[in-house]
Amino acid sequence: MKKLNITIQLEMSVPDDWELATTSEGGQVLKLPNGQFMDMAIEPMFATDPEDTWTSTGDDDVLNDVLDMIEAEDVTYQFVTH
User: Fold this and answer.
1) pTM surpassing 0.90?
2) Which of 5, 26, 30, 63 supports an S-S bond with 38, CB 3.0-4.6 Å?
């Protein structure tokens, strides 16, 4: 089995009322003004509590609005050898 590192760097323009929040495990997520949190690690994931279960949106308009905020994306893939 090989190890694969994937690095995703996004540059986004977001509303001024979005904030960063830290989870109990030390990760960071975005706190949205509507009482939800959003994690952009793989795809936009939402939760009403950052310690709770995260789900993707079933609303294509919401997903498209978030993806439209992305101005630049850089993804790199690298196999790690030991």
Assistant:
1) no
2) 30
Instruction: Write out the two tokens for 21.
Output: 């929040």
- What are φ and ψ of residue 74, in 5° steps? -135, 120
Q: CA–CA distance from 35 to each of 17, 30, 49, 81 (Å)?
A: 12, 11, 8, 42
Backbone angles phi, psi at 72, to 5 degrees: -150, 145
**What is the dihedral angle through the alpha carbons of 39, 20, 23, 49, rounded to the nearest 10 degrees?**
-70
Rounded Cα–Cα distance for residues 42 and 39 (Å): 8
pLDDT band per the 50, 70, 90 thresholds, residue 54: confident
